[in-house]
Automatic annotation (TrEMBL):
Ribonucleoprotein found in the keyword field: no
Cited SUPFAM superfamilies: YbaB-like (SSF82607)
Summary of subunit composition and partner proteins: Homodimer.
Listed InterPro entries: YbaB-like_sf (IPR036894), YbaB/EbfC (IPR004401)
Organism name: Reichenbachiella agariperforans
Entry keywords, A to Z: Coiled coil, Cytoplasm, DNA-binding
Top-level taxon of origin: Bacteria
Pfam family, one: YbaB_DNA_bd
Family label: Belongs to the YbaB/EbfC family.
Record-given protein name: Nucleoid-associated protein SAMN04488028_101358
GO terms for cellular component: bacterial nucleoid; cytosol
C-alpha cells in the first residue's frame, strides 16, 4: 500500500540533499577563454561569473579592473534576472500539476 508519510520523508530528504549539492556547486570553478587568451572568464558551478580577465592590450590599463568588475556585475545581474523569469515561467506553466503540499517546493529543483 502507498505510504504517504514515507514518501513525504523521502521528498524532504531529496530537497535537503538538493540544497546541499547546490551549495557545493559554488566550489566548482571553470575557466573559458576567447581571442587566443586575450579574454578569460571564471565561472562557478552555480553559473555565476566570478572573474573576467581582459588583456591589457585591449583596454586602458588604468581602468582595466573597473571594467572587469562592471562586466562581472552586469553578467551576474542578467543571470539572476534570467533565473527569476525562468522560475516565474515554470510556476505559471506547471501550476495545478502537483497538489499544494506544505514544505514541498518543486521550484528549487530547477536551479542547478
Amino acid at each position: 500500500m502507498f505510504d504517504m508519510m514515507k514518501m513525504m520523508g523521502k521528498v524532504k530528504e531529496m530537497q535537503s540533499k538538493m540544497k546541499e549539492v547546490q551549495a557545493e556547486l559554488a566550489q566548482i570553478e571553470v575557466e573559458g577563454e576567447s581571442g587566443a587568451g586575450l579574454v578569460k572568464a571564471l565561472v562557478n558551478g552555480q553559473k555565476k561569473l566570478i572573474k573576467v580577465d581582459i588583456d591589457e592590450s585591449l583596454v586602458n590599463t588604468a581602468e582595466k579592473e573597473v571594467l572587469q568588475d562592471l562586466i562581472v556585475a552586469a553578467v551576474n545581474k542578467a543571470t539572476d534576472e534570467a533565473d527569476i523569469k525562468a522560475k516565474e515561467y515554470m510556476k505559471e506553466h506547471t501550476e495545478g500539476l502537483m497538489p499544494n503540499i506544505p514544505g514541498f517546493d518543486l521550484g528549487n529543483m530547477f536551479n542547478a
